[in-house]
Fold this sequence. Notes:
Layout: H1 4-17, H2 25-40, H3 43-48, H4 55-61, H5 73-79, H6 85-100, E1 113-115, E2 126-129, H7 139-149, E3 155-158, H8 169-185, E4 188-190
Parallel strand pairs: 1-3, 2-3, 2-4
Helix pairs in contact: 1-5, 1-6, 2-4, 2-6, 6-7
Amino acid sequence: xxxxxxRLADDLTADYLHGRWRPEAAEEHRARIxxxxxxxxxxxxxxxxxxxxxxxxxxxxxxxxxxxxSWRLAPVLRxxxxxxxxxxxxxxxxxxxxxxxxxxxxxxxxxxxxxxxxHYDGEAASLFLAGGITGCPDWxxxxxxxxDAIGSPAVVLNPRRAAFPVxxxxxxxxxxxxxxxxxxxxxxxxx
Length: 191
């Protein structure tokens, strides 16, 4: 059985990272409140686990609002209680990123996120996400959200593609070249 929360959270996070989605003002406000509440729900054990979203907190977020039907976070939060721990952690990371996304000095994440095979030759500080790509969870997505949550201005260089053309020898060569070039220009490499 597919984890509905994982699917919803993956789609929304990808749209956030690529600049295709940004929460509406009221949705962002409620997400910030929910983020703060997640740090309180569950006490010290909840904080150690990265926060816990209690059902009552989610209900508060989803209380009636004229624009609730258009909020992309609403279906994610409705699916949250039945999701896997990994999917729930991704949602909490997304809420953390939204909570600090209003930094006026930082360009939007879409301008600070480069995913293979797109090339980066900018001057800003950059961080390469090195480590597993195939046969492992998409840890890179969570890492980018966590970097946003601490207000990192770094341009993130992500070798994990949304869709890698498996079986194409040229794509494999292109990937290897991309990784080498971007490892060389990165200011920081995160494993």
